[in-house]
């Protein structure tokens, strides 16, 4: 499913698509996946044939691309052409208002699954670290981004906070 989605996105954007098989939280905790993404991104940047690079992530992968973008900004690396977050999980503190308000309407991602994934990923790491909660970070000089969200999602409020961080460099699409 993800490879098909990736292929369609790449074709629609007229770009090559590369899928990063990063370590999942059930296998490895933070910062393994972010370190893998950083190495992969730097390798793509060094490849003259790679062309424009856009970052796309869905759910936990959305967390990863926003954390990676923050790291790119902080280290002064080449910016991607664009970034797309599809229902990204961007605040591991789990303090947003929509957790409770949308718990009955979000049928795709039950809160228990999000909490389980969060606990496995953090493995005791501070959830206020911007590298695990990108909404708390800064994105000075960041590329523009597109954030897809649904008004019934339990993590809707955090995406609204992320929009405030990005200001006029972000566009939100609600479904």
From TrEMBL:
* InterPro entries listed in its UniProt record: AB_hydrolase_3, AB_hydrolase_fold, GDXG_lipolytic_enzyme
What Gene Ontology molecular-function terms does this entry list? triacylglycerol lipase activity
**Which keywords appear in this protein's UniProt record, sorted alphabetically?**
Hydrolase
Q: Which Pfam families match?
A: Abhydrolase_3
Query: What residues does the Alpha/beta hydrolase fold-3 domain cover?
Result: 9-159
Q: Which PANTHER family match?
A: AB HYDROLASE SUPERFAMILY PROTEIN C4A8.06C (PTHR48081), ACETYL-HYDROLASE LIPR-RELATED (PTHR48081:SF30)
Entry similarity comment:
Belongs to the 'GDXG' lipolytic enzyme family.
Q: What is this protein called?
A: Alpha/beta hydrolase fold domain-containing protein
Its lineage reads:
Bacteria, Pseudomonadati, Pseudomonadota, Alphaproteobacteria, Rhodobacterales
